[in-house]
Amino acid sequence: MTTGYGRQYEYDFFLSRRGSVGRIAQEVADVLREKGYRVIVQDYDFQLSDSVIERMHEGVKTSRDLIILFTSDYEKSAYTRKEFTSFEAQRLRQPDERHTIILRCEDVSPDGLLADVIYQDLVGIEDADERRRRIIAAAERQATATPPPPRPFIGVPPRIPSFTGREDQLSRLDAILIHNKPAVVTQAVQRVAVQGMGGVGKTSLAVEYAYRYRSLYAGVCWCPAETREGLCAALKDLGVALGCDASNAANPEDMAKAVLHRLAEQRANWLLVYDNAVSPNEIAKFLPSAGARVLITSRFFDWIGLADEVALTALSPEEAVSFLQSRAGWQDVAGARILAEALGYLPLALDHAAAYCKRAQVSFGEYAKKAATLMASAPRDVLYPRSVAATFDLALAEAEARCPAAEEVMAFLGYCAPMRVPIYFLEALPNREQAISVLAELSLIKHDPYEDGVPAITTHRLVQAVARRRTEARGTAKATLERVSKALSTKPPPSPRKGGFLNLQQVIPLVRSMAHQRHWFRHNVWHLIREFAHYAERYERGADQFDAAGHPDKAKQAREKASELREKASRLESRFGRPL
Predict the structure, then answer these.
(1) Under 8 Å CB-to-CB from 11, ≥6 apart: which residues?
(2) CA atoms within 13 A on the CB side of 189
(3) Alpha carbon distances (Å) from 501 to 51, 99, 477, 496, 525
(4) Predicted TM-score (pTM) of this structure
(5) CB 349, CB 201: distance < 8 Å
(6) DSSP state, 157?
(7) Tens of pLDDT along 89-148?
């Protein structure tokens, strides 16, 4: 009875159990075989001369489903644990086709990675017909137990439906973090850093991994790690899920460390995602000592000694072509190849382009011509790719054509923190609902509501950088920052859910400090860098004029002043980054 599935298996079921339920194992095998299923049972089907480990290995590989006769001593045996963990590693390759099934044989509840497997109960059932019915129901994946509550999934951005490719990188992450074993089996903290340039898809890869492998973890917590405030706030949310009372902590850092201490006391491992970490030094003191695996995304290039590294580059040509067609919703291989090459196979630029083509019904080839013209004239002194600048400009022009308020909303979001922004912060902006709808359709922003239902949006950091550059070029940066500051004083609405996860009164000060103060400060610093460079250039020109007029002493003083100004600009730039 192995037909009707995605592939053929030698057996329908591999029966995993301890010796204490040998009689029940024989009963289950007899019932299933009578029903026409093929079953392999250790002890009964292994020959005396067989290698138990080798036959177990073959049985796990060649059986569609694993049936566990669960008892209080099941997890105490190295052999039964091996049977389960080996099957789980195999099952992940066909998660919709292969299943773990539990028949509870003693009055104990499955724990760890078995906790969310819905089971049939044989405890206290004496009637032979009822036992037979329950065994068959289990084989047919029906359950009598109440489904367990979902595992915590804190702050993880929505899954990306158009995610394409990256199978090798996902397999590499799995190998590093889990080593093809469920996290409950090994307790050492594994860390991996996904590194690459902005817009290459590091966050998207981490999101896909979190969704695809969430069943291997006791819970998942997404931690924006660009700032210490954001990281501590996310760890505080983790503390709520762990029941950790850190109210006596003197400051957010002490609170975060208390949460990590509680995490280390847990039996099963969590997955912590530290997204967009600036450098190893910035997060080193906030890494768990036990109880978790850590997935880091970062532009920083050297994580040797702290984490294994997975370098992420642009998509392959085939992946880029597939992504464009999937995202736009039509087939045009030749046009997709031209456009993908023009945009350097960069996922963020490809996403903007495909969304634009779909919204405006523009062919890939026509879009490639428009983008090439914009990239040729794009600024070269910025830290984001010119392909992103070009696709942003095209997308925003389309958004403004549909809704003139889109420009103001995009400028506002450019000066917000690189985290979820509650939509009510934008309520003073005209036509914000229409503008948000259009911007989301063009992939300039994404809807990402909070856990308690408060609507929120996120904007990619490179998109924010381009928006800020555009705002500064128009001379409206100061007015935009003042508008952001005023909006962040808006009183929040009540949470849609009583006792909701998010405490907005705590979020507002955090967002205010991260968005307004941080960007206002950087705006002034960058303005000062430009001013230093401008006056250094003027002193250089003055020095040339003094030389021409025969005043070498004055020329020397002017050049020394220019050098001093450039040195000041260089020191500021090395500390705070180049102006975007």
Answers:
(1) 2, 38, 39, 40, 59, 62, 63, 64
(2) 18
(3) 53, 32, 34, 10, 37
(4) 0.60
(5) no
(6) P
(7) 777 666 667 888 888 888 887 766 676 676 788 888 888 888 898 898 888 877 665 455
